[in-house]
Amino acid sequence: MKAGELYKKAGLIYKLSKKWMEAGDAYFQAANCFNKRNPIEAITLYIDSSNCYRDYSSNDAIYALHNAIELCKENGRFRTAAKHQITIGEIYESNLNDIQNAIKSYELAVELLNNEMDETKQLECYIKLGVFYSELEQYEKAIDIFLKVANISKKLNKSWYPTDKYILNAGLCQLIQNLKNDILPNKLKNILRFCLKFNENFKNSKEYTFLKKLIFSIEKKDPENFVQILQEYDKYTPFETWKLKLLLQIKQFISMKIIC
């Protein structure tokens, strides 16, 4: 334990000197010393190590977090383990641009949260997964996840998790998938029926009206009208980046006259 305290002090000195890699190494060694006798202290030190590494060595930051997660699981701290698993997902996404491993990390976080019955945190993970699968053009998976999110949000009944928004996300993924699969424009109204079958109250939402207008503009093969609809909606509900990219892909189908 004495060695652990010395490594811990060295980590603090390196941290104050802004020698981040050395600080990360020292905290990691301290955590290893505390690992068996004081796992809670070791968890904290692994996290300190990861925080020091994060902007300088993403792989070392992830490795330190993995050690913390294993100790959390061994000690029944599943919610804390999930929190750190989400952080690993964020590192893969933001630092390494590795979406596949980010997906695996968020899926592991969802599994850990099953032990805690924490549907709010699970919902946040599912939202990220839905966006990832949409960006990877795996629309079936994205649709399933967004509908799962809509179900959870309906159950939670929280205003900051609007159910209609997630039904719209599923509808937009279905729309672009249909266009990529050469579904005739006059069949696109089936998407509206698909959304209403999931939740008949969707018809009373601004999201339903927006989706309906988009489909009509596609039927008319009118890209100018399509853009106008986007601009009107964006004034009141700004688009997330991933959704705007998806909508612009849809516009390309109209502009390039791909639709029969």
From TrEMBL:
The entry's keywords: Coiled coil, Protein transport, TPR repeat, Transport
GO molecular function (one): syntaxin binding
Pfam families: SNAP
Cited PROSITE patterns: TPR
Lineage: superkingdom: Eukaryota
GO biological process terms, semicolon-separated: intracellular protein transport; SNARE complex disassembly
TPR repeat coordinates: 123-156
Segments forming a coiled coil: 96-123
An annotated GO cellular component: vacuolar membrane
Similarity remark: Belongs to the SNAP family.
UniProt-recorded name of the protein: TPR-like protein
Biological source species: Piromyces finnis
